[in-house]
Amino acid sequence: MNRFQRAFVLASPLVLAAALAGCGSGGTAPSSSQTAGSPSPSATQSPSASPSGTPSGGGSGSPSDTGTPVAGGPARCLSTQLEGSLQPGGGGAAGTVYQKIALKNTSQTACLLEGFAGVSLTNGPTGDPIGAPADRDTSVAVVPIVLQPEQSGAADFGLHQAGNFQGCTVVTAAGYRVYPPEDYGSLFIPAPATACSNADIHLLTLRAFQPF
């Protein structure tokens, strides 16, 4: 074996090892490519989670804002924050006098006045009711009225003349007891009127409150 052949034989194992090492590094590259590719699915899931979170936060905020006038709006007006008075109405016809019951917000905060009051004639500020309470006249729609301090709402009411009712036991009422809508408390409006003490005789009719 000459010198060149001996050198080739000695070099052959080194060449083979280098080739195997090259193959080994070539096999590692696909593995690295898959590792780099694996964040791609997780990144795809992240945007999916992000939008689902965004509507959740935005949605929970939007209904809250939309519901504010109802859930966070003014509380109903109570008798303790109202002052009642009689105001001129549409005159009188066929034995009935028409006036308005006005309720003014005397408190420092806004309140909601909506619907029908409970009204009856009475013999004094703390007296018993006289006759039947007012009947509801539903010819006018119920509307929500937010009363700012010093603002008023008014309801039309009619008082039939007691003398037109046969069998009426005539008495003199000292005024009107008024229960604001949805309130168990009441207020008194002094206004002497001729009434019937009979519980089955209905002298009063009342409409829902309107802005005044």
UniProtKB/TrEMBL annotation:
<protein>
    <submittedName>
        <fullName>DUF4232 domain-containing protein</fullName>
    </submittedName>
</protein>
<feature type="compositionally biased region" description="Low complexity">
    <location>
        <begin position="24"/>
        <end position="54"/>
    </location>
</feature>
<feature type="domain" description="DUF4232">
    <location>
        <begin position="77"/>
        <end position="209"/>
    </location>
</feature>
<feature type="signal peptide">
    <location>
        <begin position="1"/>
        <end position="21"/>
    </location>
</feature>
<dbReference type="InterPro" id="IPR025326">
    <property type="entry name" value="DUF4232"/>
</dbReference>
<feature type="region of interest" description="Disordered">
    <location>
        <begin position="24"/>
        <end position="90"/>
    </location>
</feature>
<dbReference type="Pfam" id="PF14016">
    <property type="entry name" value="DUF4232"/>
</dbReference>
<keyword id="KW-0732">Signal</keyword>
